[in-house]
Amino acid sequence: MFQKSIELMEKTPQPVLKPQLPIRPYVCSTIKDFQEERDFLANNIFPQLNEMCNSRGTYFKAIDLRWPASEAHDPLCPNFRRQYCGMQSQQLKLCLDYINSSFPFFLCMLGQTYGEFLREDANFITTGTPDLPGLSKVEKNLYVAAHNGYPWVLENFTCSFTELEVIQAAFINDSQFQYYYFRTGAMLLKALEQEKGKVTCPQSRQKEYEKRRIGELKAKIISKGLPVRFYRDLHELGELVFKDWSTVIEKLYPAAVLPDNVDSEHNFERSYHEAFAAKCRKIFVLSKESKQVFDALEKFVMKDPQTETGKEESGGSLESILRIRPILPTKSILLLSGERGCGKSTLIASWVNSYRERNPDTLVVPYYIGSSCDRSDIMSVMHYFVTELQYKQFGTRIETDLINEDSKVWVFSLLVEIFLASISLKPCILVLDGIEELIGVYGISGQKAKDFSWLPPSISSNCKLIMSTVSSSISYKSLSARSDVKTVELAISSDENTVIRIFEQYLTVPHKNIFSYREKHNSRKKPCLSPLKVAILANEFQECRLYRNESECIQEYLEVLSIQELWELILKRWVEDYSWIIKPKKVMSTLPDTKGRLNGWVVDILCLLSVSHCGLTDHEILQLLDILGYKNHYKVTTSHWAAFRLATKQWIQEKPNGRLHFCHQSLRQAVEHKLLGVITPVRESSPYSFQNPMNCKKTNLHRILTQFFQRQSSFWRAYAELPWHLKMSGNWEELCNFLTNTKTLAIISQTTRPTFWIKLHLIHYWNVLAEAGCDTTGAYLSMVKKMITYKTYKIKERHTWTELNCKISDFATNEKCQLICFVARFLNYLGRTNDAEELFITAEDLLIKHDLESETLLKVQLSLGELYLEIGSLQKAFFFSQRAWVTWRQLTASGSYNLERLKQKGRVLHNLAKTISQGAVKENHLLENTVDLSKQLACSPYDFAMLRCTEGILKSLLGNFSIAKMKFQECLSIRKSLFGENHFLVGEIKEYLADLISGHKKTEKLQRKHAIEYYRGVISIKENMELLTNSFQIKKQLNISLSNVMCKLAGQLMKIDVSGQSEQEATGFLHRALDLRVTYLGPSHSSTAELLRLLREIERKSQNKGSLQIRSSSHESFKGILVQEKLSKRRLEYHRPQNISTLKSPLSSTAAKLQRAMSLDSYKVSEDSNTVSVLGKGQKGTRFITCSPTKEIMKQQSQNSVELWNCREESTLPKKEKDAPGKNPTFGSPENILKSPRERASSVASYNWSPQTSITGSLSAISSLEIPCRPQTSPENQLFQKSGRNTAFHKPFPPKRQQPDLRMLKKLSESNKQ
């Protein structure tokens, strides 16, 4: 069924998610008389439109240029005069530039004024190059605009600036979305009254002229048929603007544009790469060198190297024919290298686009690390690839339900396994550009991320991996040494025509040949101009001419040899031409001045961008400048900022979410080295870098940004930046306060589906605090205690995110329980299993007390059931799985079904199948519910595999072992395709299959070998998982489970082969199992003593007899014990294989769980007619199983502290040991403390051991090795179950409950009777 659904999805065309461009209308009006309207729209209407855009995956930002009212003069700031003159002369040019950049959006407001203009009788020369200082402001603007791309303005020199803007937008560009708002009525009268009394006789004639010209402009707009609106007051203007532009948003980006199975955050990330690639393609120029690389890329992805080698050697001499050719390794990785700035990114972006157009059916997934400053860690990169590959294969993103609950999936090695499994799904091409910029996260060092030592020696033949890096990086040195890597170098073109074409690509103004700027008298050999250097020169040629002589500037730039030297010169020009310094007495501002370094607001902004985590928006930058002290006449207006942004638009680019970032690593390095003064890149800095005095400026910037983002109203914006700056400034206390803040927890815990990035960084900050010695656990528990014991507790409202800024009384019970569950999962992640259990139970009690049968209650009960499964308490797991089932039925009865609800049902059924007894399967219709649900979840591979596993368990319970094997194999195939070979979920199903195969009576030798391989794989997986758990209880469970698997593997090795080598290997596994049992169960445990007796007997017989006789005797006795056990068993029970994982951890084991459950003092489950059904096929007949009385519940709590594994059999150990367990003088002596586990077991066993039963051979003794809680999947697989020691399945006792539990049980009992 699952394969059919995959084929159906492949035939169905998948929606292509294109990057959604922002809506950025240019706001046009006369400057002086529309300030009130501009302020009203900016404060009231535009934020609403932005929120609407944010819900569609884009943003709304109006371009509203505000010009300084008058010239500012300060003797301490001589640069002010120059800045003012520069801004006054390029006002028109800036407006026209931003109209073009905001195309096709334009918003215009017109009244009765016409704006700044030249009269028709003005003596204006339209040709030549006049002396600008002697001209008026309007004339300067006309000449500057004409010589910088807008020559048509000289033909319309009598038009005002406002009319020239309208001409550019409406008549030249013909913008698609342009709206005009004409002032009438009250607003017009108000404006006229303000001007009344100010008008003299000559001015009145000018006013009449302006009215005529503005009337002609309005008539021209109306006659063209452009949308015109009339408004009388601000309220009416706001309604019209909101209606028009919300229609534009709805038309461009409908509400249902995103598929349900792709989260918006991932769509944003995809748009970053698409936008970055589009900009790279625009500036790409094909050269001879890039053409060679294109051909190399085509051959790499299209042809097999083995075939190519054969073609080259074919047709040669007889020697070449007879020679045995060596098998060459397949080249699955192509590494493109070259100098920084040689054009690798533009070439790759162009090739990817070209290849996609020519091969639309081939899956190509590019990732440009330079496209986003906050997604450059190796785990985010791999998660992006996995998400894309899973989506293309299954029509769904990676199943993050598993990641949400299970912290072990965050382990880097497991994510690598998922990545390797994903690239094996179907033929694909992965492109990773700029790998030298990779950084580490969550315990992964930056060096490990860059050297790719985590990548296996060979990857799937389905995948072709293309990477690019600079030739001097550690990535190049590491990857070029691999046998499966093909290296291709991109050389810098020396062709002058290519350089000229690149130069022209960036220019919109007339220019000379770039080589003509080189000084002829300088005979020094000139270096080759890289594409990056040519691009920088072209951009500077276009921008610096506004302030200085471009010829002298370009000549100076051409003299430098390196890119870093060139950036230092450009940074210096930016500061001199656009910035100014403030030096008043009281300045909050800025950063410590350092001699020899540049200063000013341009420097401050570049440094702030370099230390920010996710970039900064234009609005945030202007606010930060105000905080730094640029106020009053020092204020940086929107026009000043617009001029600087226009000059740097090629290098400081805007991401699709509106945040600015450095688009090239070379500029970031220059800023960090020249302006910030750091050696280690900011993103690779240690959290303790603030202790270095050399980083004082960087640390101060982190603190400024901390104060800024503490007062942000948007939580997710604060979450993206604030913890990062608290970490980098060493403010551990504030970081802990932020992460444990009730409002922070409330928002995160109430998020339906937190993204990978959110959870990854949350766990990262937890680890950072743990390394710093902060007690986050205590802070979380203290917060929960206040919530639970709340009476009249009030907290003063604060204005920072790092302080408790909300009242506990503001939270409803359901929200409180969501918080408690979040804290419980955190504690479980840290290994505080007992605390997590208590919090989960507390949350359920609160919900039941307030009769809240909500989604939260279902999640709590599911979490409790899975927690008990993971620590091996089957009885409690069964109890809470029943309660979760009842809650699920009540929720679905009152609400509608959705995909999430169906997945929860699958988890409940899976947990019940693991814990229910054999006799209760049929009457509770578990199998029928599972089969029906499988059809509904066929499109979700993770849940479909889980349900196939559930069906296999239930089929085994009913004795249909062939169908069970088929279901298990189908589940194994899906999980391997999702998670790889070494994932704990794959280990779980391998153990099910191994137990099923090895236990069948007619199992062939080949099948038994498969079982042995499965067992070996399970052992390897469990050994790896043991290193990943933080909880001692779970680690104990895992090691006991591992001991059982080793015993089973030893039995299968002796059964399939009687050679001495197999027996020796089996003995080795038994010794390892003994060590684990002594360590975790103690030397006096019954199974430890039995295992030790077996090993002694094997050693004794090996010494007294020949190896051949021993093997023969062992084989015959093995057959004898199988016959004995078969005759001794009248009623077959289902025996579950050890379960490696529940949803929350890979460390659980069903065998250990059953033993732990049976060690409790509980009563047996009666399977007669009095047993009440747990499930029902339909709505009718669904009843809750009868629970133990309240006294039994309270009694059970007192037994929870008893050691659950101390359950020795009376027939095995002497009476003395029973009466005084653990008081062995030999074991407690100092000598024995220093002994190994095996030696301690030997000393104890030699002290109190005496044979109780006759042993017919070595293999017969293995039947008593496994802990008796371990039932198997078939009657033949009773190898480890000693006759007479089977314990009947017990009815579960619930844990300690509070009084609300009784009310709930009573309510459920009454509803069942009805």
Automatic annotation (TrEMBL):
Residue ranges, compositional bias (Polar residues): 1271-1286
Pfam family for this entry, one: NPHP3_N
Keyword entries, A-Z: Repeat
Region feature (Disordered): 1211-1234, 1270-1314
InterPro entries documented for this protein: DCAF12, NPHP3-like_N, P-loop_NTPase, TPR-like_helical_dom_sf
Biased composition range(s): Basic and acidic residues: 1211-1221, 1298-1314
Chain ranges of the Nephrocystin 3-like N-terminal domain: 331-438
Keyword Repeat carried by entry: yes
A GO CC annotation given for this chain: Cul4-RING E3 ubiquitin ligase complex
Protein name (database record): Nephrocystin 3-like N-terminal domain-containing protein
Species: Sarcophilus harrisii (Tasmanian devil)
The gene coding this protein: LOC100920137
